[in-house]
Design goal:
With 180 residues, the chain is α+β, with helices and mostly antiparallel strands. The chain has three helices and ten strands; from the N terminus they run E-H-E-E-E-H-E-E-E-H-E-E-E. Helix 1 runs parallel beside helix 2.
């Protein structure tokens, strides 16, 4: 597994690097085939933030936690990722009779900065491009949950059309499908 560690607004010490690498490497006992891990450690005002993004085959698992201490933030995010992996494995077992056997994720291509629409209004500051592999809506819900997002854009495996899955305020999901 390739582990990269990035520091934002702080210098990564060797002890901090070793600690983060150790915590991320322990996640391999919960899931096979972790291809890469990216850890971002940052300081923002009085918060110490640890973000971890794992690539497992075609799946992306992401977590972010903050604390007053960077080491405890790393512990918290490692625990969060572990829970997400275990939840994912449980859902795979529940859905294993359906054929595909596992959810497929987005292969993210590099984010591109975009131009603003107007001088005084809101502007687009980031654009993400990704490959859209066909997913069933329940697989998209699993992937959205693993990423910790409130919405998820995917190509529906049944209709072959682009859909948007979103988390409603009541905790359930909504699905947006094109009409015609």
């Amino acid at each position: 597994m390739q582990i990269s560690i990035t520091g934002r607004n702080l210098e990564i010490t060797e002890a901090l690097r070793r600690y983060a690498e150790e915590k991320v490497a322990r996640l391999q006992k919960f899931v096979d085939h972790i291809t890469s891990a990216h850890v971002i450690l940052s300081i923002a005002k009085h918060r110490q933030i640890a973000e971890v993004t794992l690539r497992v085959r075609e799946l992306t698992i992401r977590g972010e936690e903050s604390s007053s201490d960077l080491y405890s933030a790393i512990d918290l995010v490692a625990d969060k990722i572990e829970r997400q992996i275990l939840r994912y494995k449980e859902k795979i077992i529940e859905h294993s009779g359906r054929g595909s056997g596992h959810a497929r994720a987005r292969d993210e291509i590099s984010p591109v900065e975009a131009e603003s629409f107007s001088e005084d209004g809101p502007r687009i500051v980031k654009t993400k491009r990704f490959a859209m592999k066909p997913l069933f809506p329940d697989e998209a819900a699993i992937q959205m949950s693993l990423l910790g997002h409130n919405f998820f854009v995917f190509r529906n495996a049944r209709t072959e059309e682009v859909n948007v899955l979103y988390r409603r305020q009541d905790g359930d999901y909504g699905l947006i499908e094109p009409n015609g």
